[in-house]
Specification:
mainly alpha, 6 helices
Length: 122
């Protein structure tokens, strides 16, 4: 799990807030009773974090709510969902080639993507 985008986003939020408050990693580590190395690893997304540490970090970083420290859940792109659908359909004898499947996925993704610059109701 460590190194996963969710942990990297969480670590980035911890790092940004720590720096905004003018704290060193060692000062933050002291406040939450962790090692400075653990803080460094959390900030870089290399370390999984326990729930009680999330609460301790949120309090030490002066967040009103723990949720303010948490990043949003990463969303799958439409292309990933289409690739899964296409690969599941590949069980039939008349399945698409990998290249054709990629073209279909790109076409559907671009067709479903929100149009930039268009106004609501037009």
């Amino acid at each position: 799990m460590a190194g996963d985008p969710l942990y990297r986003a969480f670590g980035s939020a911890v790092s940004a807030r720590r720096k905004a408050l003018g704290l060193t990693q060692a000062q933050l580590a002291s406040k939450v009773k962790m090692s400075r190395a653990s803080i460094a690893n959390i900030e870089s997304g290399r370390q999984n974090i326990l729930l009680h540490h999330v609460y301790a970090l949120a309090a030490a970083l002066d967040f009103a709510k723990v949720a303010d420290l948490l990043p949003p859940l990463p969303q799958k792109s439409m292309g990933e969902e289409l690739k899964m659908t296409l690969s599941n359909q590949a069980l039939s004898k008349q399945s698409l080639s990998e290249h054709a499947g990629a073209q279909v996925a790109d076409l559907i993704t671009s067709a479903l993507a929100p149009r930039r610059g268009s106004k609501v109701g037009s």
